[in-house]
Design goal:
The chain is α+β, with helices and mostly antiparallel strands. It has two domains: 216 residues, no CATH class; 64 residues, no CATH class. The protein is 34% helix and 17% strand. The strands form four sheets. A three-stranded antiparallel sheet has the order 1-2-3. It has a three-stranded antiparallel sheet with strand order 6-9-10, with no helix packed on it. Strands 7-8-11 form a three-stranded antiparallel sheet. A hairpin with an 8-residue loop joins strand 7 and strand 8. The protein is globular. The relative contact order is 0.12.
């Protein structure tokens, strides 16, 4: 039931890992929103609190997604300062080339969140053919740092990291249709392996950053919906939106950047609110 082949003995976070891998925290959030009973927040808090120190773990995608979900659903920003401090203590971003590593022997090696016996490893490639472990924060952690701080450098790091990993996966890995929760396929990189509850290099950042998506009752629900000038439900190709969800006294924010060479018209709506029309000149940035 709990995939013992993907466990390691005496893991202090083993129990919490089971909860994350089964979507328990999301279920507590759904129950809280349906009932208003704070007992579900207390249950979620007991899962989230030990995860704060794990947010700089390069494999800790589910931990960062869990903290982000907890903040939004329960409106609790009490862990923000500690979470941001842990994430920003990670090594600075650099341009060293990355490499995917798949050990010949599949076994669970490290304790903690987001690990699996057949998972891929990532490294910084040396021109002599060597590699050293990549200490890049997960894209979900960089996304969380943006949601807390509003610093677009974190959002850029998340999107860049997700794009790099996904491009490498597409080039050399199989799709994963034969075993969707495996640890070494394209789907594993994009959306996480079977212990990650859908948190991967792509899903950990793109939906959350661009549309403010979160899970609710088993589906992804966007904070913001965008339509192009023709009324199609999509983000115009020239536009980069970045969403910070409302948490406690922090109001929701939508940043729109026109990276194209011409003016762009679009319509956006937050939640059940009214449609708002925007016209952005080339290179323009607006904050709503």
């Amino acid at each position: 039931m709990c995939a013992l082949g993907h466990k390691v003995s005496n893991d202090p976070l083993g129990g919490i890992e089971n909860h994350l891998a089964s979507g328990a925290l999301m279920a507590y959030g759904d129950l809280f929103e349906a009932s208003g009973d704070r007992v579900f927040q207390e249950a979620a808090r007991r899962i989230v609190e030990p995860l704060i120190d794990q947010l700089a773990d390069p494999f800790g995608d589910p931990a960062a997604v869990a903290v982000s979900h907890y903040r939004v659903v329960f409106g609790d920003s009490s862990y923000d300062e500690a979470a941001l401090r842990v994430i920003e203590a990670a090594p600075a971003e650099n341009d060293a080339p990355w490499v995917i590593m798949d050990p010949e022997q599949h076994k669970r090696r490290e304790p903690g969140i987001g690990k699996r016996a057949d998972m891929l490893y990532w490294g910084e490639f040396g021109e002599d053919g060597s590699a050293r472990p990549l200490r890049e924060p997960s894209t979900a952690a960089s996304t969380l740092a943006f949601q807390i701080s509003g610093d677009v450098r974190h959002a850029r790091r998340a999107l860049r990291g997700g794009a790099r990993k996904f491009a490498m996966a597409l080039r050399i890995l199989r799709g994963g249709r034969e075993h969707a929760d495996m640890g070494g396929a394209i789907c594993s990189v994009a959306a996480g392996h079977g212990r990650n509850w859908g948190a991967g290099a792509v899903t950990g950042c793109y939906g959350s950053l661009l549309l403010g998506c979160r899970e609710a009752k088993g589906e992804l629900v966007p904070t913001v919906r965008l339509h192009d000038a023709d009324g199609n439900a999509r983000v115009p190709e020239e536009i980069l939106p970045l969403v910070r969800p409302a948490v406690g006294t922090q109001a929701a924010e939508l940043l729109l950047y026109n990276g194209g060479q011409e003016d762009v018209q679009l319509t956006w709506r937050s939640g059940e609110g009214d449609d708002r029309k925007e016209s952005l000149a080339a290179g323009e940035v607006v904050l709503r």
